[in-house]
Amino acid sequence: MNQFDPIPPTFSVSQVRSAATCPRLFYFDTVKSRVEGLGRTYVTRVWKSSDRITACGSLFHNAVAQFQKHASSNPELCDATEFTYHNPTTSPPTQDHPVFRAASKLLSNHCINLSVFHTRSPDQKAAFTQAVNHYLRELVEIIRHAANDPTRPSPEQLLLELFGDTRRAVNVTFQVGKQNEQINVRGILDYIFYDRRRAGHWIIDYKLTPAHHPNNDLFQVSLYSLMHDIQHDTQPGVAVTYLHPQPQRFELSWDQVKANAPIVHNLLASMREWSRYDETTQTGLKPPGEPSICPSCRWRHECVARLGHRLDGARVEPSEVNVNSSSLTVVKVDPQPQPYEPIEPLESDDDVEPNGTLVSPPPGMVAPADFSDHVATASTPTTPPSSATATTTSPARSTPRLRGATSKPYVDPLWIGTLKQGREVRLPLDALPTHTAVVGAAGSGKTWMAKVLTEEALLNGIPVIAIDPQGDLVQFLHGAPASRLDAMPPEHRARHDELRRRIRVRIWTPGSSHARRFRLDPLHLPTRDQFEHAVKGTDQDELQGLISLTASRVVALAAAGGSISQQETFILKTLQNLIQQGQTSITWSELASIVMNPSQGGFQEGEADLLVKRSEREKLARQLNTLQHGTSANLFNHGEPLSIRRMVELEPWEEGPGAVPLNVVYLNALIDSEQKRFVVAAMAEEISRWMMNAGGSPNHPWPLVYLDEAFDFLPAGTVKPVSKPPLIRLFAQGRKYGVCGLICTQSPRSVDQNLFSNCSTKIIGRLESAADIDRVREWFQQGGSPSWLNSRLGCAAGSFMGRWPNMMEMFEGQPFQTRPLYSLHEGAWSPERVEQEWSRWVEIQRSTSRLDARQGGVDSAVVPFR
User: Fold this and answer.
1) Shortest CA distance to 740 belongs to which of 480, 466, 412?
2) HEC profile for 809-852?
3) 225, 390, 609, 842: most buried by Cβ count inside 10 Å?
4) List of residues 6+ apart from 358 with CB closer than 8 A
5) Which residues lie below 8 Å from residue 620, measured CB to CB, with a gap of 6+?
C-alpha cells in the first residue's frame, strides 16, 4: 500500500472538494471504494438540516444542462436575439422580453422533466420557478448588453459564445510534492462561456441552497478554472451563483484564482499521501478530521476508533509543494464535444442540495476583500464594463462548435435500471440512433428490458413503431397492474402516470380486423422527384437499393420457382421503367399484365426474353394474380393504407401536452410465418423510403423501430427470407438518418451477425450456454471482448450488463436490475384477446371524447382522444 503506483492516482473534483471539507471524509470514502471494488470512487455527501427545503437542485441542473445543449441552435431564440439587436433598450428585463419568452419556451417544453417536477411540493415548485426565472433574466442581461455594443457579433455567433462551448470535461495531471509525483484530476464543469460584459471566459457554478459558505464553494470552482486554463489556455474567472432562497453571486477574477493555486497544490499533494495511509501498520500520512461536520457525517461512529482523535493527523507542508507553472502537465486535451453526464443522484432525499461542503476554507484561501461587491441579485445585476474598455471579440481559440441543426431536444437520459449500490443506470439518449440489441434466454426478462427502453423513448417524445410477432407488445395498451403500482417508489409512480397521460396507443392488425387494420400497397415506389429531394441527386445507389429490395420481395412472395435471380432482374427492370413513367403504385393484377405483355411496362420487343424465359414469365404472372385474389389477398384489401408518416405523427384529436404515438403492429393473426415476414419486409422498405423522403424535417420526428423475437425475421447463415435484406438495410441506413433501432432475441446464435454489427448498444441478460456466450463475444468488435460475459451464464432473471456509446466507466462490468415496468406484462395475447381489449379500449375512448371513429368499425377505427 505504501508502494508508489505506476499509474498516477486519479481523483474527481468531487473528491478534492470532499478532502477540503474533511480529509478523513476523503480517506474513508477511498478505503470503502477500494475494499468493495466499486467501479467509481464513492463520495459521501454532507447535509445540513436547514437546507432540506430547496429549489429541486438536480432537476434544475439537468434542465439547464439540456437547455445549454440546445440553445445555440434554437431558431426561436436566435430570432429573439436578432429582434433585441434591432430594438435595443436599457430598461430592466422582464418576462415579456422576447429573449426571455423564447428561452422559457425552449426550457419548459423540452428541458424540464415534468414527471419529476409534478411530484414536488408547492414550495419547491415555487422556488424552482424563481431560480429558473433568475437564470433566464441574467441571460437576457447578457444579450441586452451585446445589443447595445456597436461591434456586436451576429446573433448566431453570440449564442455560440454563450452556449456552444463544449469543453466542459477537464482532465489534468498535476506534479506535486518533493518528488514531483503525478496526480490526475478530472471533472465536468457546470457552465463555461465567453462573457462579453467582462471580456473573458467565465466558469459558473449554480447553487440552489443558501450562501452559507461562498468562499468554500469558490474553492472548487477555482480548481476547475486552473484545470481549464491548463487544458485550453482560457484564463477563466469563476463565479458561484446562488439562486435560492435569494439570488446572490460571488466571483473571483483570474488573478485571484492564480493566487489560490498553492493552496490547491498543497491539498492535492496531501490527498495522495492520505490515500496511502495504512491503518494496520499506522504508516504513511494520517488524515486529520474536521470536528464541525461530525454531527452530520456518516463516518462519525468509527472515525475516532480507527484513526484516533479527530484533530490527530497532518498535511503535506506547503514548503514541500512544487507550485511552479512548469509542474502542471496536460494529459488529455479532447476538443470533441463531451457527452452529457447526468447529475449524480443524491444519497438523501431526491433533489436535496448539499450544503457548502467546505465547512471551513482550506488554510490560506484568498477571498475577495468584500463579498458584497460581488453580489448580483435580480434587482442589482452585475454591472458590465463599459464598451470603451471591453474587448469586443473573443479569441479565435474560444470559438465554440455549432451543433447540428437537426439535433432534438431530448428531455432526460433513459433510466433503465439500478446498480446494487442503488445508483441509477441511465443510457444516453444519443445512443438510441446507433441501435440497441437486447439478448437473454427465455425467462431472463429481455422483453421486460426492451419494453423499458421503449417506455423511456416515449417519455422523451420519440414515436415508436413496435413489431409484435407473438402478442407481448400489444399489452402497452394498459398501464402496470395495481399490485405493481403499489410497490413502486413515488418517482416511478409519477413517471408511470406521466407515460400513460402522454402516449397515444394504436394497435394495428394487418390482414385482419381484430384491431385497427392497415393494408399494404403491393408496390409502393419512390418517385424520382422524392428521391432526388432526399439525397439531392448525389447518391443514386439509395434508389437502386430500395428498388432491388422491392423486386426481391415480389419474387419471393410469388414463389413461382425457376431462376430467382433472372426473375428479380426482370422485375427490377420493370420497376425502373415504371418509375421513369411516373408511376408510384401498382396492383398485383396490373403487374401480372405487364409480366405477360412487357411492352406495357416500357420494354422493347424481345428485351424481356433476354432477361427471363417466357415460360417463367407466364408462371410468375399467374402467381401474381393469385396474390391479388388468393389467400394473401387479405394483406392488400381493406383497411387504411400503410403510412409511416401517419404512424410517427399525431392525429388532430390525439394532440395534447407531450403527446407521442405508440404503434404496435400485431402479427399473430396472420395466416403463417411467410405472411409475417412479408409484412415486416414491406414495413422495413416503407420506413426506408419514408426516412429518405422526410429529409430531417422537425415535422417528421425520427421513430424508434422495435422488433421483438428477431430470429424469425433475421436468421443466421445463408437462409434468406424476404424480411432479412430490407431489415439489414434499414439498420445500416437508419444510423445515418436518425431512425432508432431496437431488436430483442433469446437466441443470439440464430440471428444474423450483420444486424448486431450495426447495434452499438448491447444489453445482455441471462445466457443459457457457453455457445451463446461465444456468439455474443463476437458482437464486441470494438473495445475488446468484455471479461464479464462469462458471468452472464445462468445469472438471475432481470439482471443485465452491457456496453453503449459514451458509457460511464462505473457501469463497465457492473450488473444492474431493470427498473419497474410502467405497462402491463403478462402472457402473450391471442388474436381474440387483442380484439376484446381493443374493442373495450375503443369504447372507453369514444365515451370519454364523445366523438365517433370516422368509419365506425373497430377494424378501421381512427379513435379520437380527449
Assistant:
1) 466
2) HHHCCCCEEECCCCECCCCCCCHHHHHHHHHHHHHHHHHHHCCC
3) 225
4) 17, 20, 21, 213, 215, 216, 217, 219, 220
5) 555, 558, 560, 562, 567, 592, 595, 612
Asked if residue 339 lies in contact with residue 428, where contact means CB atoms within 8 angstroms, the answer is yes
Q: Which residues pair with 187 in a beta bridge?
A: 170
**Which residues, at least 6 apart from 584, have a Cβ–Cβ distance to it below 8 Å?**
524, 525, 526, 527
Cα–Cα dist 596/592, whole Å: 6
CA–CA distance, 566 with 613 (Å, rounded to integer): 9
Candidate ranges 100-104, 212-216, 633-637; pick with highest mean pLDDT: 100-104
> What are the two backbone dihedrals, phi and then psi, of residue 472, each rounded to the nearest 5 degrees?
-85, -35
Residues, the chain, total?
866
Strand partners, 252: 238
- What pLDDT digit, counting tens, does each position of 193-248 carry? 888 888 888 888 888 877 766 766 777 788 888 988 888 888 999 888 888 777 88
Residues 592, 474: Cα–Cα separation, whole Å: 37
* Rounded Cα–Cα distance for residues 655 and 864 (Å): 10
117 contacts 56 by C-beta, under 8 angstroms: yes
Measured CA to CA in angstroms, residue 807 lies from 97, 188, 757, 813 at distances of: 40, 15, 18, 11
- Give the distance between the most distant pair of CA atoms in the chain: 103
Sign of CA dihedral 125, 117, 486, 474: positive
- 3-class DSSP state for residue 453? helix
- Give the integer Cα–Cα distance in Å for 766 and 441: 6
Please say whether the beta carbons of 727 and 763 come within 8 A: no
450 Cβ neighbours under 8 A, 6+ residues apart: 438, 706, 708, 742, 744
Q: Which residue has the cell 511552479?
A: 324
Ranges assigned E (strand) in 412-455: 414-419, 424-427, 436-439
Q: Cell digits for 650?
A: 399525431
Helix (H) or strand (E) holding 761: strand 761-764
Which domains, from first to last, does the chain contain?
A: 1-380+403-412 (no CATH), 428-520+636-783+792-866 (3.40.50.300)
> What is the distance between the alpha carbons of residues 83 and 222, in angstroms, rounded to a whole number?
36
Tell me 539's DSSP state. -
* DSSP H or E stretch at residue 12: strand 10-12
* Number of helices and strands in the chain (H, E): 27, 23
Question: Residue 95 and residue 102: Cα distance in Å, rounded?
Answer: 10
Q: Which DSSP letter does residue 632 get?
A: G
Tally of CB atoms within 10 A around 718? 5
Assess whether the previous peptide bond of 363 is cis (omega < 30° from 0): no
- CB environment 251-273: b (16+ within 10 A), e (fewer): bbbbebbbebbebbbbbbbbbbb
Strands (E), 530-643: 585-586, 640-641
Residue 204 — φ and ψ, nearest 5°?
Answer: -115, 135
What's the pLDDT at 162? 87
Instruction: Dump pLDDT digits (tens) for 654-691.
Output: 877 888 999 999 999 998 888 899 899 889 988 988 88
Cell of 351: 433533489
**Does residue 434 contact residue 760 with C-beta atoms inside 8 Å?**
yes
Helix, coil or strand: residue 61: helix
Strands 523-524 and 704-707, sheet pairing: unpaired
| Residue 652 identity (one-letter amino acid) | P
Q: Which three cell numbers stand for residue 707?
A: 422488433
pLDDT beyond 60 at 110: yes
Which residues, including other chains, have CB under 8 Å from residue 856's CB and lie 6 or more apart? none
- pLDDT band with cut points at 50, 70 and 90 for residue 336: very low
Q: What are phi and psi of 632, to 5 degrees?
A: -90, 0
What values do phi and psi take at 415, rounded to 5?
A: -85, 105
What is the DSSP-derived secondary structure letter of residue 145?
Answer: H
